[in-house]
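Encode chain A's predicted structure.
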Amino acid sequence: MELLSFLSITGFALGWQRWRGSSGSSAILHAVSAALVVLFLAALANTLSSAVVILLATGSFLACYECYRHLRNGEQFPVPLGIFAVLGVLYWLLHSGSSLYYYDEYSHWGVFLREMLASKALWGADTNSMHPRYLPGTSLWQYYFAVYSGRPEGAAYLAQFVLLMTPLMVLWEKVAWRQVLWHIGLLALLIVLLFNFGHGFTSLYVDHLLGAWFAGILLNFLVERKNSNLVHLGSYLLPLAVIVLTKTTGVFFAMAVAGIIALLLLVPKTNEPQESMSRRWLRAAAFPSVTLVLCLSILFVWNSNRDSLAVEAGEGEAASLLGSIVSGQSVLTDRQQQELTRRFVEVLMHQQISKDEVSAQYNAFSYPIMSAFTERFRLTTFSMLGFSLIAIFLAWYALLAKEIRLRWLVASLSTWLTGVVYIAGLYLGYRYASKSDYDLLLSSYVRYSHSMLLPIALFCFSPLLPLFEGAQAKPVKLGEKLFVEKRFFIFAILLLAMYVFESPYLRPLYSEQPPHEFRVQTEPITERMRELTGNSPLWVFFPNDVENGVLGQMLQYQLSPGRVHVEETSVRLLTDPDSLREELRNWEYIWVANKNPEFQPAIEALIGRGLGDGLFRINLVGDQLQFVEVANSLGAGSQQQ
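Encoded structure for chain A:
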């Protein structure tokens, strides 16, 4: 059924191309965007299930009809759409059995999906997620692929892969089916960039999605020649809406794209009828203005939905972060701010920005693990920004055709400047928006920075692609009868250099992501727990978790969709049992999931029984709590290694 969802998306893309007469890559971009926006609106209207059925049926019909029409008329299948279909099927064959692995996949995206699959609607106030107000774009997209799947985690990864590749299909624009070397080269380019400056192909993290959509929208707009058409220009609001629905910081990315498009509207087009300056200025001013209204509208309706369900706003909300930065007030002392600045500059100058096998051992970068990265001659943020700026001017001077040179320079330089502003924003966020000295660790800096370094890298390579025809098309002689295009020759050398000096860790490319060992060990226990509790509110005592608490997040995910709280600290149990007992009045079951003898006396004092390990039903008799044993020997503590 997952491939049926993928088939329907292909059908919408084919239908969009015929309806709008657009390029194949633009059709994919707009069709996926329109489908996701429909899912969002349907979810707000509590008609998500109906919308999914309609989209599946309509898209599948369009796919069958368009394929039949192409075969009947002998029409060639558009290359971007064909590559899109092949990659999607190939991905499913390789990764349909992959499982969630990293912290955030368990703490919110995985929980969102489980709760939506159970309720056929958006998650509510009782969600087990640590971020209940997280924008729902990627979760809705994963639901669309997983709703009728027998392997929902594999389906979620397929959905994320489709969303990642959608804007990048523009790289295959103007490539013919017979140009096999270009197909291989473009796929190799995406692999090295997405595995080094993103999360590869098997991840539910969204930072590299922002970068891919940023670059893909701009490249599509540059390639298409219809940007004087108001309807065509307005259609780009759909992919911009997707960026916003992906993450709150997507507002920055969407507005940056809208601003760059506005600049491009002011650039005169060679060999085309010129519009009046007043009309160009009007459109240039109107587009980012309408985009801002769109961004604010999405945030407003989403927050209204969360408010209507009494969903609490968590720490780190974008509005409060921005307010802290604007006010310039920080909880850090002057000495801590100086230390943070020193560390940020050190990371900027010396921390490798590309990923390798060491990176795969950590959920996220933090300052204390810098010493684990020992490879020399890897790109840092500073060196990458420097090299990319040089590459932009070299490409503008030597590689691009006259009719595209100025527009490409405006887009690429604006992207580079956006990257600089974004990195500066990261620094301000760490300095002024922190709630404690935790941000001295510069947690997740590498992941955050990839959001803008990825589109910068894509723009650096784009002048060498068939996407932009130019002077580099001259042939290079490699032998007596062997010739290759100059642009492909340069492209191949640079790509080879990337693989040599920025070697990506490629094992996740071809192997399924296995489930975490702890999850394998505890799955039978948590399945039994769900049978016994019937998804009733469950309080779990699970102290002595690993440092980042990922094991507790796994337990909470496995026990979802019922409301679950995992207590990972023993402090309250040992120091304030009365308040803990009062809290337990709001829960129906308590599971003591740790067999550590250190806590046995305190647990026995809390539940009033001689057995401190197992599942108990919480009954309220008058003002007194009674703990009735349901099952014992269900502890997960022995699995915690």
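The longest strand covers residues 624-632.
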